[in-house]
Fold:
Amino acid sequence: MEYLLTGFATALSWQNLLYCLIGVTFGMLVGVLPGLGPSAGTAVLLPLTFGMEPISAIIMLSGIYYGAMYGGTITSVLINTPGEAASAITCLDGYPLAQQGRAGTALGVAGIGSFFGGTVAIIGLAFIGPPLAKLALKFGPPEFFALMVLGMTMVIGLMGKSVLRGLIAAFIGLNLAIIGMDPLTGTVRFAFGVEELSNGLDFIPLVMGMFGLSEIILCLEDEMKAETPPKVRGLLPRREEWGPVTKAIMRGTGIGFLVGLLPGTNSVIPTIMSYSLERKLAKDPSRFGKGAIEGVASPETANNAYCGAALIPLFTLGIPSSPTVAILLGAFIMHGLQPGPQLFSKNPDFVWAVIASMFVGNLILLFMNLPMAGFWAKMLMVPYKLLFPIVLAVAIVGSYSVNNSMFDVGAMILFGILGYFLKKVEIPLAPVVLTFVLGRLIEDSLLQSLTLFRGDFTLIFSRPIAGTLLVLSLLIFVASVIAGLKNKKGALASDVEM
Amino acid sequence: MNNAALWIGLVILAFAGVLFQQSTTYQYFGRFGPGPGLFPLWLSGTLGVITLIYIINSYRHKIVTFAAILPKGTGRIRVVSLFAALIVFLVAIRFTGYTVASTIMLFILLVREYKWYKSLAIAAAISVVVFYVFRGILDVPLPVNPFGF
Structure:
């Protein structure tokens, strides 16, 4: 409690409040504007944090992450186009509500649900985080290796329509991660005489290319029209709607929170699950798809609860559960912080300030959404043909600023083109980025384990936790392959790049 | 030969092959523990094997052609313009500095959407603002020409 109060004191300093405000505002913009997801948005803003204090930097970047979840709703409701993938399901009932002149109610309920879901998840992070981190402190290199393999297996198993394509993506990321110096002997690998490669590939050009540039290229293929949104009036539901809405928000919070704890999931999964549940529980399921307010409340709550809960594996185990969280992990490392069990004990000021800032950020977002929904709706009138050159210019300079080198700009462009073609053949990009971030950590823990076991890998199974996690990974992998062969992965395995 | 998955698979396979060949030149296991070649050898080898399966699969299932996945008409022109603009930018920046190279790049992208003078004005405005923010405020030493921009 004392740490949390100190965290609030840090988060409420004018400087951090400003960064939180910038973060959530940019996140809202990312969510509202088409063609720019939370991953690309966070990646584009990452270089701007180089000169900042780590606390301020992570406060700002986290703000983009959860801010985008609020922003994505607006486009779903007003113009039937999700600003980001997690809001896609909101179109089903949000847009019909807007057509009935109840856009304000849909946005209001989404705002309240998002605030509630997000806040409960952060409370969960504050309470579950420390004991989980304490438990993880007992982990040695074999346990961490097994844990990361489990995380990776879940990513491969759950993301993408095909396990094979997920595997290819994951191994591309791992192979890219090992370019550069060997962690034990310092031998430079795969540099081919290029000086810039001797320290390995940088994370920012890779993410900016894969998520930013490839997304720009894809958007250029379509029509680039600006939309005129309808007017937003009356933000609260009718009296008789409060009961079902409250229950839907509660259920959405539970689903979002639980799914967020699992590595390899994405924010679309809890939204689909919560929408399906609401439909099943409804007295009259035929209302869904025609403007049922619970169809907006529950998924919108779920995606924000998911966002907060997804930070628990990152803060306690150092395992990113989604690409945007992987970018946050990259940001942690860039600022000299190592996410994982020691974060709570070594950097308590940092952890609790970030957690406190999320409470503050959610409150800011509630105010930004309820009275200002109409203002954000006007952002839809910014044409993409004007927006994408700005994003491109910032992405180029952002990549350059990592090492002040044009090599990184070239790498960003190369990864952008690679990402574009991979998307075209439905190889998901999320596992590439996730495994790229984890690659070095996996190699470190594997080599340390092998040194410990004098080269005998099978001894890893003599450690109960590590052995159990590896067996679990194997079972998940086999189950994913079987599900893939039977083509039962369905909607949960949509190739979402969040 | 118009199988897109095959060609993309071949590129990945070539990447895996190069890494695998290089991995064999590094020590696999030394006196004191695993060498720098151990992890890369397994990773590149596995990537190679799964990519081979992917390539074989690309023939067994419905073949995805380049014509089916690449854009047509205006979309194609826009995408090609973007690639061209990026190449021009990479070449020009060595001689012209950031602001001019960025203005040229953005002009190429915008000129199809707006009148030429509007495109030029928007391109120059974006470039100048980005230059000012990164060089002036964030101290990023962007490449400049002899005139300092």
